[in-house]
Amino acid sequence: MTLLSDAPSLAQESLEAFWMPFTANRQFKAHPRMLVKAEGMYYTTDDGRRILDGFAGLWCCNAGHCRKPIVEAIQKQAAVMDYAPAFQMGQPLAFELANRIVGMAPDPLDHVFFCNSGSEAVDSALKIAIAYHRVRGEGARTRLIGRERAYHGVGFGGISVGGIPVNRKMYAGAMIPGVDHLPHTHNLEKNAFSRGQPEWGAQLADELERLVALHDASTIAAVIVEPMAGSTGVLIPPRGYLERLREITRKHGILLIFDEVITAFGRMGAAFASEVYGVVPDMITFAKGVTSGTVPMGGVIVSHDVYQAFMSGPAGSIELFHGYTYSAHVLACAAGLATLQLYEDEGLFARAARMAPKLEAALHALRGSRHVIDIRNQGLVGAIEVAARPGTVGARGFDIFLRCFEKGVLVRQTGDIIALAPALIVEDSEIDRMASTLRDVLAGLD
Ligand SMILES: Cc1ncc(COP(=O)(O)O)c(C=O)c1O
Questions:
Q1: Could you tell which of 59, 234, 261 is best to mutate to test the pocket of ligand 1, judged by most ligand atoms within 8 Å of the CB?
Q2: Domain check: are 101 and 237 in the same one?
Q3: Ligand 1 geometric centre to CA of 393 (Å)
Q4: CATH at 320
Q5: Which of 345, 375, 409 is the last residue before a domain boundary?
Q6: Among the three residues 318, 345, 372, which one is the final residue of a domain in this structure?
Q7: Which of 222, 262, 393, 410 is found 20 to 30 A from 132 (Cα to Cα)?
Q8: 159 and 103: one domain?
């Protein structure tokens, strides 16, 4: 067995076959950034450099890397039963994990559908929403409402309700029909340098009334939003905005889906963002943090009413024609159970809430640094937005990302926005290092 950390550096031609996702392939392959080992808050590169992980991998390794209880649970399970089909068969860990997740979820969300990624979770939630109305005799409710700048993964459902132009334009003619979008909530004129939830913008939720007037409620199945929009560059919901969406959707019998693929399992300082914002949707999608990124897993938590609506017809008939070969994969379930136990044992959600003011202070101290036009944060998430270089959106952001990596800190870049989302075990000194690295990089940037 070749351990990654012992593997020789790959020759340039060996990098060709892998078509890397969401990556500048030619740039990467000319200047590879290869990670071979991970522990706690750090990665190690193939040339032996330790990299402080400011982004929990990709918003997912919330417990930190290679945590022993999770590693051991996966190893142990792999030797006992590698795989069990989830169609018409069961294995105990799936039920145990569903119970555990339901126990953490807000009432009345009390059933879990499992899949393998955030994208699948979103597509599953959208399908469940449309099917829900149909089984209740409202089959005309098929329209889905997303939001500009939203990221809901890369499935056809996800890009259709999503609102990131570069993710959509190649597939414009192939997206699912009957989708409309709310306006996004990003407004630097009103909200720049907000700490936590911005004051301005609740009224943007009223745009939903306009869409209902246009399409009629009887055609609308669901509204899907990220409570905190992460991948588009950290857009914190304005005060009162999510509450208003909840009111309007309830009034019109429209399901509200919170896409919590990033925000669930501690990122905002609680199990779910729904809890932080005090707004309970009809469905929550999750992925990433459920296994701390160790084994792919995603899912949808649905309300009592949504689940029960399907439980009619003959008891021997399948209620939902949807599922994945790897739904509730036993290794993912083992990883999930160990991860949720670790979050509880170490009080990591509360820890995230305690560390949030530190991250806020460290980031906002960068106000006034070169090119910085906004800093925003909530929970253990923060973002710094810099002015784009004229005519080259994203180039300055990419430079910041590369220079931080050279200085031993991994951050995430979207356009000209740099996001930080460290594991919930992050220490003060590590937050200081992320901020001082960013300060140095910004100072030297053209
Ligand atoms: C809110 C949200 N939904 C869906 C996804 C897609 O998840 P995945 O990459 O696991 O398919 C992401 C990924 O970052 C996300 O942030």
A1: 261
A2: yes
A3: 23
A4: 3.40.640.10
A5: 345
A6: 345
A7: 262
A8: yes
Residue 375's CATH number: 3.90.1150.10
Supply the range of the domain harboring residue 353. 4-63+347-443
User: Is 331:320 a contact under the CB 8 Å cutoff?
Assistant: no
Per residue in 22-78, pLDDT (tens digit) is 999 999 999 999 999 999 999 999 999 999 999 999 999 999 999 999 999 999 999
**Which of 231, 292, 294, 414 gets mutated to test ligand 1 (max ligand atoms within 8 A of its CB)?**
231
Judge if the beta carbon of residue 231 lies within 6 A of ligand 1.
yes
pLDDT along the chain (446 residues), means of 10: 61 92 97 97 97 98 98 98 98 98 98 98 98 98 98 98 96 95 98 98 98 98 98 98 98 99 98 98 99 98 98 94 98 99 98 98 98 98 97 96 98 98 98 98 95
Q: How many domains does the chain have?
A: 2
**Does residue 118 line the site of ligand 1, with CB under 6 A?**
yes
Q: What is the pLDDT of residue 7?
A: 61
pLDDT tens-digit readout, 259-285: 999 999 999 999 999 999 999 999 999
Do 121 and 198 fall within a single domain?
A: yes
pLDDT for 10 equals 78
Q: Which pTM value belongs to this model?
A: 0.97
Structure tokens at 444: 């030297």
How far is the CA of 292 from the CAs of 56, 58, 230, 254, 345, in angstroms? Answer: 9, 10, 17, 32, 15
How far is the centre of ligand 1, averaged over its atoms, from the C-alpha of 440 (Å)? 31
Interval between CA 262 and ligand 1 midpoint (Å) = 7
Distance of CA 180 from the midpoint of ligand 1 (Å): 20
Task: Choose among 243, 186, 224, 205: nearest CA to 383.
Answer: 186
What pLDDT score does 239 carry? 98
186 shares a domain with 162: yes
Long-range (24+ apart) CB contacts under 8 A made by 303-312 are: 303/108, 303/109, 303/110, 304/108, 304/109, 304/110, 304/111, 305/108, 306/111, 306/128, 306/132, 306/255, 306/282, 307/110, 307/111, 309/132, 309/135, 309/136, 310/131, 310/132, 310/135, 312/135
